[in-house]
Amino acid sequence: MIETPLSALEVAMVQTGTRAVDTLRDTAAFARRLDALGYLRLWYAEHHHSPAIGAFPPVVLTAHAAASTSAIRLGSGGVLAPNHAPIMLAEQFGTLAALHPDRIDLGIGRGPGTFDESTARALRRGAGPTTDDEYREDVAATLRFLVDEVALGPLPEPWLLASSTAGAALAAELGLPIAFAHHIRPDNTLAALDHYRARFSPSPWCASPRVLVCVETVCAETEEEAVRLAGPMDVVKAGLLKGQSDIPFPSPEEAAAHPFTADERRALTAFRAQQAHGTPDTVVRRLAEVAEATGADELMLSTPVYALAARLRSYELVTQHATAPSARP
Predict the structure, then answer these.
(1) In a 3-state reduction of DSSP, which class is residue 92?
(2) Model's pTM, two decimal places?
(3) Could you report the per-residue pLDDT of 288-322, keeping only the tens digit for each?
């Protein structure tokens, strides 16, 4: 049983043998189906110059999905502050919130969205990595511009994305709800959330600590099928472990033939144990465990599997087997 509302993260994987335009078509169908299933929100992540992930601006995907859905909340998870002028973020998401009242979220993160240094510098017009102080000011300025410059009516709901204690500290200082990337750095989750709750300062945006935890979730009718579906992302992760960021997103068949090293298999097994993979009973139990351990107010599911039908089936199975109110309040 899952007592916690459920949401979804769309990473927009570009499958081997397909085009980016095919991924875009799938993201629209994906949003409509999750809306029908009753998921609370759907966020889009910002990525650049990757053969495995589409370089689709979250603000554009949000606008497109909002035009073809009716109830699900939509937004960025996240848009990356160092790559954008704060006033532009405020104008873009403020406009979306005015067009789609009470349905738009502005999730802000720090990373460059790429592992390629030249791409990161191009995004920042030649500037180097953002310092802690610069990042804090970018986030604070975006919030100020939302109120002082945009003021179109209903404002987007701001969230701060974090994968470390440093990010949690900033969310606490600014009084923002936190979306923690357990699906990326699960070893950091508990300490960072403790830090956030202990140091939280109420703000006009958020009166008390509010926690969303993102969990990698692969659900299938059998354990064997869940392992098969997780295979393509395992190949991408194994490449990242070796510093290779140019790995395409393979098919499950290609992934099954991939020669993982013993160290890679151990690392992938350890990571998977902290996520939610398997049959519906296993996944629902695991999600409930994560929610209890973290005290999450909401869980966001990230399901990077090959083929739209398999990805949607994973989300369908979770909702079918989560008997408590698992989506919109």
Answers:
(1) helix
(2) 0.94
(3) 999 999 999 999 999 999 999 999 999 999 999 98
